[in-house]
């Protein structure tokens, strides 16, 4: 996962809204959004290479998501999969803060990450690059491949789009969120961060929706949680076509949280 927007306790009709893009190499095997056969309470896509996930919820209302922290010079090819940090939380009953405290004690063995865990009522964030557990305050927060709310062009643009949606009192149309998530415009070079991947890849990775010949946004997700406990989870997957990615499939699940 390379982009997560979190709107918590700001929209009058939805205590939690999640918008996210998963960027990955096109060749990496992936299962689409579904309830897992080995853990029927989990609703998530799945990385078939390591069996973890990047974003998921459970029937009891647990939520977790992760993004990678971009620093290629420090990448350890033998580090454990960060996607397991998401799935391990979803299968557990551990308190979110306690779970992150345990991860904090062992976080150095993973490549850099941002991990968000919690439920409809409260969310917590931890990055092994800051090594601080933070309760996410009400408002809109965006995480890409740096720390939470780092003002990269793509996070600023996503923040603006989510603010426009959340400041309306009407029910949210998921298509409005998907429109934010599929923005392919690339910002000027002088606004790009320098994360060590070279200018050409900084350009490729700079748009909200990423596309290239080998790597790009594989799926977008929207989660709408209502005070009643009703939760809508929509995932839209894309075909890998450079410059003109097209929709492959849209999956929608509506569940009632049973705490």
Folded structure, characterized:
- The chain is of the alpha+beta class and 259 residues long.
- The chain has one domain: Penicillin V Acylase, Chain A.
- It is 19% helix and 37% strand.
- The protein is built from 5 helices and 13 strands.
- The chain has a 7-stranded antiparallel β-sheet with strand order 3-4-5-6-7-8-9, with helices on one face. Strands 10-1-2-11-12-13 form a 6-stranded antiparallel β-sheet, covered by helices on one side.
- α3 (153-166) packs antiparallel against α4 (174-181).
- The mean pLDDT is 95.
What CATH first level would be assigned? Answer: Alpha Beta
Mean pLDDT: 95
**Helix and strand composition category:** alpha+beta
Strand order in the sheet with the most strands: 3-4-5-6-7-8-9
Our count of helices gives 5
Summarize the helix and strand pattern as letters: EEEEEEHHEEEEHHHEEE
CATH architecture: 4-Layer Sandwich
Biggest β-sheet, characterized?
Answer: 7 strands, antiparallel
What distance lies between the first and last C-alpha atoms, to the nearest angstrom? 27 Å
- Beta content: 35-45%
Please give the radius of gyration in angstroms: 17 Å
CATH topology: Penicillin V Acylase, Chain A
How much helix, percentage-wise, in residues?
A: 10-25%
Low-confidence stretches: none
């Amino acid at each position: 996962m390379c982009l997560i927007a979190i709107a918590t306790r700001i929209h009058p009709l939805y205590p939690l809204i999640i918008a996210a893009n998963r960027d990955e190499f096109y060749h990496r095997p992936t299962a689409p959004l579904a309830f897992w056969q080995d853990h029927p309470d989990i609703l998530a896509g799945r990385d078939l290479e390591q069996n973890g996930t990047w974003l998921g919820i459970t029937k009891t209302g647990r939520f977790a998501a992760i993004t990678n922290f971009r620093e290629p010079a420090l990448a350890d090819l033998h580090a454990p999969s960060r996607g397991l940090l998401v799935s391990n939380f979803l299968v557990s009953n551990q308190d979110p803060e306690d779970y992150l405290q345990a991860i904090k004690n062992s976080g150095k063995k993973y490549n850099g990450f941002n991990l968000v865990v919690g439920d409809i009522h409260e969310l917590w964030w931890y990055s092994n690059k800051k090594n601080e557990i933070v309760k996410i305050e009400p408002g809109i927060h965006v995480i890409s491949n740096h720390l939470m709310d780092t003002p990269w062009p793509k996070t600023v643009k996503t923040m603006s789009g989510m603010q426009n949606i959340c400041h309306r009192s009407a029910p949210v149309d998921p298509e409005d969120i998907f429109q934010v998530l599929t923005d392919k415009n690339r910002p000027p070079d002088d606004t790009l961060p320098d994360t060590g991947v070279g200018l050409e890849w900084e350009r490729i990775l700079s748009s909200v929706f990423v596309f290239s010949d080998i790597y790009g946004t594989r799926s977008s997700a929207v989660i709408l949680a209502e005070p009643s406990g009703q939760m809508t989870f929509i995932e839209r997957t894309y075909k890998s076509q450079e410059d003109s990615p097209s929709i492959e499939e849209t999956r929608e699940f509506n569940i009632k949280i049973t705490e």
